[in-house]
Amino acid sequence: MEHSAWHELIKEQLPEHYFGKINQFLDQVYTSGTVYPPREKVFAAIQTTALEKVKVVILGQDPYHGPGQAQGLSFSVPNSVPAPPSLQNILKELADDIGVKQEHDLTGWAEEGVLLLNACLTVPAGQANGHAGQIWEPFTDAVIKVVNGLDQPVVYILWGAYARKKKALITNPNHLIVESAHPSPLSAYRGFFGSKPFSKANAFLHSKGSSEIDWLR
């Protein structure tokens, strides 16, 4: 992980030995089988979105587990790989809410100040949630707590029951929580479609005097 403002504040939330445990875990899993994303992209969310730039957090559960999909940013895949169903539904809602985004790689969002954070940062090939409960949750909870402590206004977009469990970590009255059903095909019609999270986020940021996210970037 890069030495940065993130690193210092996350360290304050965790026992001193925890970073060593993470490195041991990474050494073990990346030498014993196929794991996604590529090791150099495990911490891409906090490496791409500087702490002082965070305006929105979109919380996912764990990375995509197919070849070439995961790039360390929740819900995002490279343009060279077909968009998975959840991402297709996110872009469909975005089109209805704000407009059509030409590319499905969400790196531009991360550069705009959207922290695309998964609760688990790695996954074994073909095994959804295969690393859940092993190492990552205390670390990513610490990331959420660091963002919760920011003075600048932040919008948390929580899709689905798993993400909504993290509400307990979000206590700052200056921040906004936008929640709905998950964009997966199993639940998108139960309240995700029509929830307008992107325009709600921008309206809140605008009301606080903060610049809006260019969701079509």
From TrEMBL:
<keyword id="KW-0963">Cytoplasm</keyword>
<keyword id="KW-0227">DNA damage</keyword>
<feature type="domain" description="Uracil-DNA glycosylase-like">
    <location>
        <begin position="47"/>
        <end position="205"/>
    </location>
</feature>
<protein>
    <recommendedName>
        <fullName>Uracil-DNA glycosylase</fullName>
        <ecNumber>3.2.2.27</ecNumber>
    </recommendedName>
</protein>
<dbReference type="InterPro" id="IPR018085">
    <property type="entry name" value="Ura-DNA_Glyclase_AS"/>
</dbReference>
<dbReference type="InterPro" id="IPR036895">
    <property type="entry name" value="Uracil-DNA_glycosylase-like_sf"/>
</dbReference>
<dbReference type="InterPro" id="IPR005122">
    <property type="entry name" value="Uracil-DNA_glycosylase-like"/>
</dbReference>
<dbReference type="InterPro" id="IPR002043">
    <property type="entry name" value="UDG_fam1"/>
</dbReference>
<dbReference type="GO" id="GO:0005737">
    <property type="term" value="C:cytoplasm"/>
</dbReference>
<feature type="active site" description="Proton acceptor">
    <location>
        <position position="62"/>
    </location>
</feature>
<keyword id="KW-0378">Hydrolase</keyword>
<keyword id="KW-0326">Glycosidase</keyword>
<dbReference type="GO" id="GO:0004844">
    <property type="term" value="F:uracil DNA N-glycosylase activity"/>
</dbReference>
<comment type="function">
    <text>Excises uracil residues from the DNA which can arise as a result of misincorporation of dUMP residues by DNA polymerase or due to deamination of cytosine.</text>
</comment>
<keyword id="KW-0234">DNA repair</keyword>
<dbReference type="Pfam" id="PF03167">
    <property type="entry name" value="UDG"/>
</dbReference>
<comment type="similarity">
    <text>Belongs to the uracil-DNA glycosylase (UDG) superfamily. UNG family.</text>
</comment>
<dbReference type="GO" id="GO:0097510">
    <property type="term" value="P:base-excision repair, AP site formation via deaminated base removal"/>
</dbReference>
